[in-house]
Amino acid sequence: MSTIDDLLNGASLTVLLHPRKEVQISFPDMKESFRLPHILVKDNRFFAKTANCHAISSGFSEYDQKASYSYAYSNHYKFFINCSHTENMLRAGTINSYGSIKFITHKNYEKIWDSEIDKSVESVEHAITAGKRLKIALLDEAGFWNIHPVHMPSFYIGENYFELFTEQDAMPNFIRSQDLLNEMQSAIKNKLKENVTNKTPKDLFQLYSSIVFDLNPVFDSAYYTVRSNGDYLQGKTVLVEEDRDRKKYKLLRVFAEA
Fold this sequence. Notes:
17% of the residues lie in helices and 40% in strands. The radius of gyration is 20 Å and the shape is elongated. The protein is built from five helices and 19 strands. It is an alpha+beta fold. The protein folds into two domains: 3-105 and 174-219, no CATH class; 108-142 and 149-169 and 220-257. The strands form three sheets. Strands 3, 4, 5, 6, 7, 9, 10, 11, 12, 14, 16, 17, 18 and 19 form a 14-stranded antiparallel beta sheet that branches. A three-stranded antiparallel beta sheet has the order 2-1-8. It has a two-stranded antiparallel sheet with strand order 13-15.
């Protein structure tokens, strides 16, 4: 199966990065990895983001216990994202600052409920009472699959009904726009050409590290409330805001750790 198929069947995703040592000049030659629990899928493309829990921004500002950041990577677009909805920051940089990027899937979750198939929620109840970690894949009205870990799962005793709350996080809004993504792709490519022309190609630090674009920091909440009856909320408070903001998902899949 493809990586997309794996993700839509519950696989977890990690990215393995090898920064160019000529660019990351303050560190020795190294490899690093990130877990990417927050994933947006459309057709055969995805953007996958870390939790917003990275302590230091790529600008290496002084440590702030209240500040947190995240990174996002795509299987198609030639740029990565460094962002923070809590710090109101969003920027994109060329993936050429990495010598290699490899996505690795881990089939460590299994599908336990599918809105197309399942009427009973017994399998979800069993997973909750067994203390298993859960996550969801929700197909929204715009045709995007939204994959997020569940923070608080619950079910109503004797009512064949579950309600799942995902982790508090946010995704950059512009990754939902094909036009904006293509514009960013072109801007990165043009800047790279400009640098190759105007800078010494041997100086890879200057060549790649300057290809960074500050973007309008607009985010979509990754906090979902999903229910077995077809309802969901996004970035809303249950009971207080749900009457006017309740939506219907096209499909919902629930996964539990294997």
